Amino acid sequence: MGSQEFACKACEGTGLLMDDEQWQFTCSICHGDGFISVFETAENLQVDDNNRVID
Question: Is the pTM of this model over 0.85?
Fold first, then answer.
């Protein structure tokens, strides 16, 4: 890994998230990359009880 990239904590670097019904979908935090740049800002995301992002 480069010094400016870190593994995404939401998807643990896989680029995929899984809901409570075992459906996999692209991570909305890292956009499927699995990594987040140091320069990307942390957003105030609204989440539901299962920590899913509410659009």
Answer: no
* pLDDT digit string, tens, across residues 14-53: 999 988 899 999 988 888 888 887 655 555 667 778 767 7
Q: For the chain, give the DSSP string.
A: --TTEEE-TTTTTSSEEE-TT--EEE-TTTTTSSEEETTSPPP---B-TT-PBP-
Domain spans in the chain, listed from the N-terminal domain onward? 5-37
Are 29 and 8 contacting, i.e. CB atoms less than 8 angstroms apart? yes
Report d(CA 5, CA 35) in Å as an integer: 6
Q: Closest Cα to residue 10, out of 51, 49, 38?
A: 51
